[in-house]
Design the sequence.
């Protein structure tokens, strides 16, 4: 089993410009069942001569049975694309686009409450399930191996790093989820941890966090009460200088909670395994399992 | 921006020479507050704000400050150049409060924060005594809920029979916040004067960079002199540049997470990053070349570290850009490269077939090993 995606996942793609089409082709080559593309002005055309374009997400869903969507459209139009996918009741919406205004994300997060769609991202690398040869987004398929480690991360490139290290030690990944680097994003660590805990295929979980916010602390609290599987974690940014800050307000609202040391402490306290050295994620997993 | 939304500040005017400051102060009756105009907070503590008792004192103060760099706890060690100063009428302060509105990533909505202990020590108050901090969440769709606002302002125990002044101030701040895509509006101090009026004395606004495409009026206010030259140059190419002090490694990375991890790894080797260039996801060759040029223009660097994991980016294109820029600049500094992901094999081929002073790291662990070796052999 995998989380979020399965063998019935039919993907539609919104936004096939230079980067979007390159990534769409990579996804198709990897084995993903891409059934349709959406573009208001390219109705009745075909992507790569075989995948039909539709004028709207709703039409693509009706005609091709798409149940998951990937978004590569530029930031000014990304909110509308996400809302359109939510309105079409897709199971999963993965938004790769970076630079979406935070006010837009705030609206989206409130709009999506009680809706069917699960949003991944934005500003994320997406999801990959190597066993099914299925990916939504930009995680390079060639570094993955089917296996039993679930990965959840705020950072795209560090997700790849963890994947590569796991593959190098001869193990593999069940599902990898990049939840996105924006302050407001779709699924949280907690949402994904819950899915990994329930997924029989996943034997251990890698959590990659970073400084800022308090989301790693929420993850720690959830792990303490609900997660029985081993969790290996790393927090990027322990050596980052305090640097330029956003006025006093950031400090005022959260006190010291955003520091790497606070996050490490919170996760260690609930029994998660800490990898201080990011290059040793693979090694740590090997030791534990 | 705020006056458009009926938020009234004490009268004030900007001057850029001591003579102008003198004239403005005189027109306000002599007794004024003079503030250094830089794009940063923490000015009061750093000596950039002064109450002056006469126009002459205002002039003397401005002489000392104008054309110097003001370093505060929020500017970084470089500080900012003071080119202008703001002169305002004096307000008779009875009490200093703190009021801000920001988007809280945890509750995913705009949150008002208020404290009865405003002024320069608000951060200390926040650290030591969260009970003196009040918060009110707003609904992104409904805005401020009036019943919540009533409860919120009641906690502030302001003088007077009704809270009409603070209620309308809060409502107006909210309107300004939403209509300008702000991520922060911070009024500190918000004072109660001798006539029991609520007066915002100073304000800091942060606008979401990502929303500037739809706020063209705000874009006109951009003051490039208040920005780091290299950061501005990088921004024009849609790159993110961060300068750090005391380092000797110039780092090119993609993604904020990898930037932080690279910093952790470099620090472990005993070296320290001098700067970071985040080339982001979608990259083209021109962008990479410019990134390399910016990186190398930093005279403090002894090594170049390129640590990329190509997802949306393509490693071969990045490699081509690096080689072209390296040759153009005739760079001889050692370049440590860790590059993986999309098209990384052809990327490495391109690098190996060039005349780069190349040191290949096969994984992240190798990066600190290579740095250590280079340090030893120098």
Sequence:
């Amino acid at each position: 089993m995998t989380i979020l995606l399965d063998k019935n996942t039919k993907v539609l793609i919104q936004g096939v410009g230079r980067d979007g089409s390159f990534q769409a082709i990579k996804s198709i080559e990897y084995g993903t069942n891409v059934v349709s593309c959406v573009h208001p002005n390219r109705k009745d055309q075909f992507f790569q001569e075989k995948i039909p374009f539709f004028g709207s997400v709703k039409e693509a869903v009706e005609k091709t049975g798409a149940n998951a969507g990937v978004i590569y459209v530029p930031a000014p139009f990304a909110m509308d694309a996400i809302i359109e996918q939510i309105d079409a009741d897709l199971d999963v919406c993965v938004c790769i686009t970076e630079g979406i205004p935070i006010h837009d994300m705030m609206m989206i997060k409130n709009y999506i409450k009680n809706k069917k769609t699960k949003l991944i991202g934005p500003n994320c690398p997406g999801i990959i399930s190597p066993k099914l040869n299925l990916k939504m987004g930009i995680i390079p398929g060639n570094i993955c191996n089917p296996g039993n480690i679930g990965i959840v991360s705020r950072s795209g490139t560090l997700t790849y790093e963890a994947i590569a290290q796991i593959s190098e030690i001869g193990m593999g990944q069940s599902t990898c989820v990049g939840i996105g680097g924006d302050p407001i994003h779709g699924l949280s660590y907690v949402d994904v941890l819950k899915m990994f805990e329930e997924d029989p295929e996943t034997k251990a979980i890698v959590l990659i966090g970073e400084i800022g916010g308090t989301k790693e602390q929420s993850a720690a609290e959830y792990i303490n009460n609900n997660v029985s599987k081993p969790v290996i974690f790393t927090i990027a940014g322990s050596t980052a200088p305090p640097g330029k800050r956003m006025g006093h307000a950031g400090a005022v609202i959260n006190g010291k909670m955003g520091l790497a040391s606070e996050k490490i402490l919170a996760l260690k306290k609930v029994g998660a395994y800490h990898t201080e050295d990011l290059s040793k994620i693979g090694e740590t997993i090997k030791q534990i399992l | 921006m705020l006056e458009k939304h009926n938020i009234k500040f004490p009268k004030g005017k900007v001057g850029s020479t001591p003579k102008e400051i003198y004239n403005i102060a005189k027109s306000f009756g002599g007794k004024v507050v003079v503030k250094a105009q830089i794009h940063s907070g923490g000015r009061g503590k750093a000596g950039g704000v002064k109450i002056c008792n006469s126009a002459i004192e205002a002039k003397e103060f401005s002489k000392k400050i104008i054309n110097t760099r003001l370093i505060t706890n929020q500017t970084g060690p470089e500080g900012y150049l003071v080119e202008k100063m703001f002169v305002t009428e004096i307000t008779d302060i009875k009490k200093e409060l703190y009021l801000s509105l920001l988007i809280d990533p945890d509750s995913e909505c705009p949150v008002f924060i208020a404290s009865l202990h405003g002024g320069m020590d608000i951060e200390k108050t926040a650290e030591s005594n969260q009970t003196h901090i009040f918060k009110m969440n707003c609904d992104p769709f409904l805005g401020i809920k009036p019943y919540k606002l009533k409860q919120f302002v009641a906690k502030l125990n302001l003088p007077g029979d009704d809270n009409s002044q603070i209620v309308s101030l809060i409502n107006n701040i909210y309107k300004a916040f939403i209509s300008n895509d702000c991520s922060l509006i911070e009024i500190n101090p918000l004072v109660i004067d001798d006539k029991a009026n609520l007066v915002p004395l100073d304000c800091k606004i942060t606008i979401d960079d990502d929303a500037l495409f739809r706020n063209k009026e705000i874009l006109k206010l951009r003051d490039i002199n208040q920005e780091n030259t290299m950061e501005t140059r990088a921004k024009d190419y849609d790159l993110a540049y961060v300068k750090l002090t005391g380092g000797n490694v110039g780092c090119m990375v993609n993604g904020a997470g990898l930037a932080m991890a690279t910093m952790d790894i470099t620090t472990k080797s005993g070296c320290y990053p001098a700067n970071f260039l985040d080339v982001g996801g979608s990259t083209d060759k021109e962008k990479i070349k410019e990134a390399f040029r910016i990186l190398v223009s930093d005279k403090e660097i002894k090594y170049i570290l390129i640590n990329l994991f190509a997802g949306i980016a393509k490693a071969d294109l990045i490699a081509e850009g690096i080689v072209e820029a390296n040759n153009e600049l005739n760079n001889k500094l050692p370049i440590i490269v860790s590059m993986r992901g999309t098209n990384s094999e052809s990327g490495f081929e391109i690098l190996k077939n060039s005349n780069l002073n190349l040191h290949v790291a096969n994984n992240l662990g190798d990066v600190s090993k290579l740095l250590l070796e280079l340090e030893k052999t120098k």
Remarks:
- Residues 56 and 62 of chain A are 10 Å apart (CA to CA).
- The first helix of chain A runs from residue 18 to 30.
- Chain A touches chain B through 70 residues (CB under 8 Å).
